[in-house]
Amino acid sequence: MARRHSTPRRWSASALLPLLFYSVVHSFRRSPVSMMGILPSAHAFATPPSVSAGGARSLRLPRVEGTRLYSLKPAAIPLMDSGKALARSGELLIDLTTALDLYGGSLSATGANIRNCGDCLGQAAASCRFKTAAELVIDELREGADCLREGCDKLPLAIEESEVDGDKQLMERIDGMIVPLRQAAVSLEKAGAAIMQRESVGAVGRHLITCGESLELLSARVGMLDPSNGDAALSSQRMMYASEQMILAGKELTGEKKETPKRKSWLKG
């Protein structure tokens, strides 16, 4: 009887994969502890320690870029007062345009933008109380700067409106408001950018001081629009107070010492 020689059967990969999976699962059910040896350990994914020049082994840790937190809380109260006073000054400037026969024009739009800037300063001051709200402070300061910049862009149109009425004196007074208002917008923008660029808190305070000085000059120009009008005088007064409080907020961040009142000689022992 002839003897058959059987050739070895070839298994395809698709046929071997289910068998391999079944054997692994069956073995794991029988002895889960012994099967843990075939899994890679945690050391396989660890970064090998580096060897320094002196031969000491040091663990190489990943570099983590953290966000720098700012403590703007000292500026919260004076900046809040500055925002409220500036908003009131903008409202009074809008009322002044009625007496100047320019209500609803570009000068009224400037007053509205100054009022909106005061609201932004108030929102920024409320966020200054929290270290993790630096992004909100940045947004509000830069939004306030945009409001001042838009108000400054309206002033040349206000000059043209005054030229139509033939009031050259008012044209010159409105023209005097452009430079300090633009400087205030730039300084407020720099204050927000300083926080975003992770500069020191003192740098933020110096920009606020510069903005307050520009508002102080602007307050004098607002009062000159109509010296005989009470709204002009009150708007100038509120803007002056806003500048003083903003300068105070900047000094709180720069760490300048407050001037303590000196005692009277007759009060001493």
Number of strands: 2
Largest sheet, in brief, is: 2 strands, antiparallel
Mean pLDDT: 80
Q: What characteristic shape results from the CA principal axes?
A: elongated
General description of the model:
By secondary structure, the protein is an all-alpha fold. It has nine helices and two strands, in the order H-H-E-E-H-H-H-H-H-H-H. It has a two-stranded antiparallel ribbon. A hairpin with a 5-residue loop joins strand 1 (50-51) and strand 2 (57-58). Helix 8 (201-223) packs antiparallel against helix 9 (230-254). The chain starts with 12 loop residues before the first helix and ends in a 15-residue tail after the last helix.
Blueprint of the fold:
Elements: H1 13-30, H2 32-35, E1 50-51, E2 57-58, H3 76-99, H4 106-127, H5 134-165, H6 168-175, H7 178-196, H8 201-223, H9 230-254
Antiparallel strand pairs: 1-2
List keywords for this structure.
about 270 residues, mainly alpha, two-stranded antiparallel ribbon, 2 strands
Short précis:
The protein has 269 residues and is an all-alpha fold.
